[in-house]
Prior knowledge:
With 174 residues, this protein is mostly helical.
Amino acid sequence: xxxxxxxxxxxxxxxxxxxxxxxxxxxxxxxxxxNADAWLNMAQAGxxxxxxxxxxxxxxxxxxxxxxxxxxxxxxxxxxxLERALSIDPAEVQAxxxxxxxxAGLERHTRAAATLRExxxxxxxxxxLLRNCAHAIHATGHVEEALPMLRRAAEQVGIxxxxxxxxxxxxxxx
Length: 174
């Protein structure tokens, strides 16, 4: 579709919808690696989307035991390696952004915000960290703290955050 923007430099997914959206926005996409260590070895600098959707089947079918097992696998295969990468190199932006997003995806917004704030101490003008941290803070109910951070993120990518966005709507739908 015309006017579709590409918010990510790379999409990592096995999910058909995520792959289709990546293709529609002309974002490069690859299969999701088996774990964070493999991803960190493959990923180039940039804004990445990792679709960690292994909890979805258990959630859809209402099987709490399977959901807990898959969450433990996510912890072992993704969160622990990302935390390890951060303990070795606290300035590792990709690992920090991925960890923050994963935590936010699990609705651990307070922990996500803390992880992303640590990254902002080292990279105070990093647009991706600013945006993701603002979203995590907003999800904790602290809108007044999130808005200035979101404005700074917009400014980093050249968007005038003081002007309202205009979205054209068709006169009639259908």
